[in-house]
Specification:
Length: 372
């Protein structure tokens, strides 16, 4: 009986073992199916993701590429546009200058209380002429030294301010231009050309840059007016320190000179400066071919007034290196010259720069008819 019980127990144990094995196998199968399902799910997700990436890379007309094409086209169009503009710039310069001149006149007229450009110019010139006469009258009084006389200083200061206003209005000083230049075309006499038979031309050219107009406005304005109303000029004196020129113009009619000896130490009589000859100075003028600070500066050429100097108005900026003045000076005569030895100035041109482009020079044109 005990053996039978033992056998039965063994069977029960064996049956339990079989059940355990079956349970284990079932769990393994469940786990395997779960793992397989997860794997399939992951593979599916990855496949979809990969297909999506593939479609993105294979898109033939992506926004990025389309935008790149547009940018390139725009750049090409812009380059073409710039080239067309550059080709048209020269053709448009004259039209633009005319339009700018019209705009300037309109702006001035709009800010003038209804007065025209010409009317304002006439009024400003009348003020200058009135003060000019008062300064001359004061200067004629015996023993009056204009540089120290209180009334003389008031009058000359008023004249300078009025002249600067006229310079601004008539010539555009400070309003449209910052500097002025005078281009001078000359013709050498036969006596000079003979000495240089290999010369390419019997003509030459030099350029004067006017002094700062806010320092010596009367001197600058006087020469600008001489050029504007130019008739003829010529170098008629060949000295060791200057080349002196006569002047025929509307501004110098009656041999009109400067109203007073306007001078500033900020613009001395350095080599190749330009000044007015005589006391009172002008209308004859000269080019200093040496430093004439002592010869023509304060206290020179007279003993009465230690402050008085020749008025001056500019500096030579072109023509020295090209030999123009060496040629004029080489004339075979000294002192005041006979006509056959004079170098003639047959053309003088006022050149102006622009406030927006100070290094660009163009010929000055009056904005309106000037009543002389």
């Amino acid at each position: 009986m005990n053996r039978m019980g033992s056998d039965n127990n063994s069977k029960i144990i064996n049956n339990n073992d079989d059940d355990d094995d079956n349970g284990k196998n079932s769990k393994i199968q469940r786990d395997s199916r779960a793992f397989l399902n997860k794997a399939l799910l992951i593979i599916g997700v990855l496949t979809v993701f990969a297909l999506g990436l593939g479609m993105m890379h294979q898109e033939p007309k992506s926004p990025a590429r389309s935008q790149h094409s547009v940018v390139n086209n725009n750049m090409n169009n812009e380059v073409s546009h710039r080239e067309n503009n550059n080709n048209n710039n020269n053709n448009n310069n004259n039209n633009n200058n005319n339009k700018d001149t019209t705009k300037v006149i309109q702006a001035l007229d709009n800010n003038s209380g209804g007065k025209s450009f010409g009317d304002i110019d006439t009024e400003l010139a009348a003020t200058v002429n009135s003060l000019d006469g008062q300064v001359r009258a004061r200067k004629k009084i015996p023993d009056v030294i204009m540089e120290t006389d209180e009334e003389g200083l008031k009058l000359t200061t008023a004249l300078q301010k009025a002249t600067l206003k006229l310079l601004e209005h008539r010539y555009g000083a400070n309003t449209r231009h910052t500097k002025f230049r005078i281009v001078v075309d000359v013709m050498y006499p036969a006596s000079v050309v003979i000495q240089d038979p290999d010369s390419e031309s019997h003509k030459g050219q030099f350029t004067i840059e006017m002094a700062p107009h806010d320092i010596i406005p009367c001197s600058v304005f006087y020469f600008m007016e001489m050029v504007r109303t130019f008739k003829s000029m010529g170098f008629h004196r060949n000295a060791g320190h200057v080349l002196q020129a006569s002047s025929q113009s509307g501004a110098t009619a009656g041999h009109k000179s400067m109203p007073f000896q306007e001078y500033s130490p900020l613009h001395p009589h350095a080599k190749y400066s330009t000044g007015y000859a005589g006391r009172p100075s002008g209308p004859e003028w000269y080019v200093s071919i040496q430093d004439n600070t002592n010869n023509h500066g304060p206290g020179s050429q007279q003993k009465k007034n230690p402050y008085e100097a020749d008025s001056n108005f500019g500096n030579i900026v072109e023509g020295v290196e090209s030999g123009v003045f060496a040629k004029i000076h080489s004339v075979p005569a000294d002192g005041f010259l006979p006509k056959e030895h004079c170098t003639q100035m047959y053309k003088m041109t006022i050149m102006v720069n622009s406030i927006n482009d100070p290094n660009q020079w163009t010929e000055w044109k009056p904005l309106s008819v000037i009543k002389d």
